[in-house]
Amino acid sequence: MAYLKIAGEEIKDYLPHREPFLFVDRIEIPVEKIVVGFKTFSSDEPFFKAYLPQESFLPGALIIEACAQVSAFILLAYKNFKDSFGYLVHIENFNFLKKVKPGETLKVISKFMGLRFGIARSRVEAYVNEKLVASGIVSIKIVPHKEV
């Protein structure tokens, strides 16, 4: 697979998610089986106002969701899954090391581990300013568009 970049509205061609639950601004696929995604979280995001507003940081569940959304793009590497969406079905060994605050850009690196029974597993690492903030494994179920 050649180097690929996807950004802006084109992201919505590949993910069923929409604002305010779309956690990918830009995708880069530098080599086969690796996807890198970016999301800048503005201070206007609704969850910053509702989740511990006195401290304002991104809930861990949303970091996991961002990792899952980025990981779903690994499906682009497989021609037989071009007309499919990916949904988070399982997480393993997630660790949260640092907080993600308003205005910061989350960089997610997803490394494809394998595909079995229509479920893709990826090891993910999330960074802010090149510092690891979270890591774990996500499993994505592949579902054809027509079943969505």
From TrEMBL:
One of its GO terms (molecular function) is lyase activity. InterPro entries: FabA_FabZ (IPR013114), HotDog_dom_sf (IPR029069). Pfam families: FabA. It comes from Caldisericum exile. This is Beta-hydroxyacyl-ACP dehydratase. CDD domains: FabZ. Keywords: Lyase. It comes from the Bacteria.
